[in-house]
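Malonyl-[acyl-carrier protein] O-methyltransferase
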Amino acid sequence: MTAIDKAKVACCFGKSVESYEQHAHVQKEIAAHLAGLAGDYVKPLPAKVLEVGCGTGLLTGSIKRLWIGCDLWINDLVEGMCMKSAARFCIPASHCLVGDIEEIPLPGNMDCLLSASVFQWLSHPQATYARLAESLSAGGWLVFSTFGEDNCLELREVSGTGLPYLQKEETIAMLSGHFQVIHVEEEHRRLYFPDAVQVLKHIKQTGVNGLAGSQIWTRGKLQDFSARYARLFACDGMLPLTYHPRYFVCRKRQ
């Protein structure tokens, strides 16, 4: 597994601002499901909400519709994404927190923190969960999705690079010091592509190639990658790419 280079992550996601939503099919479904879980579990209705890693607003719009009139703050590592979401959903600039959620100052007395498809990028997840707990009011909620160890398994098998995804039990253990973990679920979703080049284009268009040690694709490396991917994973003439979303609903310990 490769280390997480936050500068490279920001660069890759920044380049995908305009292409992200057109190609982030699984991420849209994850955001919608996460919003549904928040609506089911978070009671009473939160007055002050922070979304971590808003991106182009896939979850932001659902939050605005779910909790009409809530005081919504948004964060993203990439300024362009944060500003795009703010403009799209009429969020004041004062409520845009640009930067690494592991480092920037956080507002206090939040009733709910939400995040979709972001926490797999945390360098220090346990310390960050503690920081997030501090920003929540007593009994506040943390509702998020991340990815499990089967995520992009095909890419990791073929290229030897990938994020250090946590086991479910590891994440629960990190959360349990500050939160009661009320609900956990997971699923596997697969996209299919006609060839390995289209897999790589999908990864680039959604920004998720922001990994230290990403390949420089010479013609020879690309041919080898394509051949290995097809040999190992081809199914009925198509190449799969696995997503392994995992969902957590947590409440701050009183």
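thats it. The CA atoms of residues 99 and 215 lie 26 Å apart. The longest strand covers residues 136-147. bye
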